[in-house]
Specification:
With about 150 residues, the chain is an alpha+beta fold. It has a single domain, classed as Transcriptional regulator MraZ domain (Chemotaxis protein chec, 3-Layer(aba) Sandwich), CATH 3.40.1550. About 40% of the residues lie in helices and about 25% in strands. The chain contains five helices and eight strands, in the order ββαββααββαββα. The protein has a six-stranded antiparallel β-sheet with strand order 1-7-8-4-3-5. It is globular and about 45 Å long. It starts with 5 loop residues before the first strand and ends in an 8-residue tail after the last helix.
Length: about 150
Amino acid sequence: MLFLSTFQSRIDKKGRVSIPAQFRAVLAAKVLANDFQGIVAYQSPINECIEACGMSRIIKMHERIEAHDPYSQERDAFVTTMFGESVQLSFDSEGRVGIPEHLMTVAGLKDQVTFVGKGEVFEIWEPKGFADYAKHARALLQEKRFMMKGQQ
């Protein structure tokens, strides 16, 4: 299962946001016995938003990075940034998670969010920031679409 589509939600006064039911279903399908029930969130390495996924994705990333030189600067930078700055956010009884203040600041979140499914991950954006990015992304797709034709 993959994270698909775009959803809007409100952030409550305690900094909690309800993860869309469709995204929770994807996470539930990937949970192993006794696995973490929630999301792993971190600052996106490429966009001004929060990226999130299930623990199974983090495990896959860990397995891939283990194949690299354990003392390379690139590997260390990746592990420090992606694993060291990630936070595990457990679901409450209503499917909400509390977003830490530092991630809310990074993404410019205030009272609304836009969830964007991106396959194995989803992003949490400030709505106007996402609208601007989506416009740019669509233009780039239209310009570069010929590059995707031979990639099947």
